[in-house]
Amino acid sequence: MKLYPFDECLRAVVRHHLEKGATFYQQFNCAKCGAKQTIDVPNRFFTHGDCQECGGRTDIQKDGCNYMLTFGIG
How many domains does the chain have? Predict the structure, then answer.
């Protein structure tokens, strides 16, 4: 997964959330094993994340991240 600067992602998700009603989930790649991770807490960004695969801790703010958007129907 391609990673982007933390602040750039944060600005984008806030815009989608406020302007379009999207729900967002933060994603990152584990710094230890490289596994793609999606944080299951909606509409919040974290500076650090723990890998569900290997237990490694990633500094998301330093390493970068991505996000997933979901939109309701109707």
Answer: 1
